[in-house]
Amino acid sequence: xxxxxxxxxxxxxKKNLKDAILEWSQSSxxxxxxxxxxxxxxxxLPPEGLPFKPLMEKKFGGxxxxxxxxxxxxQAGADVGVAFRFDRVTxxxxxxxxxxxxxxxxxxxxxxWIDAVMTAYFEFGKDIADRDVLLEIAGDLGLEAGxxxxxxxxxxxxxxxxxxxxxxxxxxxxxxxxxxxxxKYALSGAYPAADLVRAFAKISGSD
Length: 207
What we know:
The protein is 57% helix and 8% strand. The chain is mainly alpha-helical. Helix 1 packs across helix 9.
């Protein structure tokens, strides 16, 4: 799954994927292994990010267009069980640090980490471009924040994130969430869980 932590449709798509995997595992007895890869919705953002509303209003053509879009996303999230509180979001953060940390946390904790970062941003308006905010999230998960801080300082995670971004570019990925299934099949967008289950069945030959 290619995604960005500031992408609301990625949060919805991730929840749909989780629900689809649960349904598929229960019906087929087969598991699904998920690898998470970095994507930047806006690679031009400065490291500290930018104010959210002015940037989004410029992108979507003013407050009258932005408000309905945010309402639509909020309702779509509620329909699948994830919350969005855009009234609390004040920054559009650069997520490079968050993506780097995804590669530094243990692989079996990455799904939980991404969920926690998205929750901090979309529900509590935390500035996830801020190193200290990210380390606090890590600490709340029981991860060793001091160790992660030291590894960030050494530049760890940069190569992996850059490789993801280059791979996404080569594949022609221009929007996320983007799913690559079994290394061969691609789905772009926040597909409903039922559609993902059908894709699993078709790819596995059991449809």
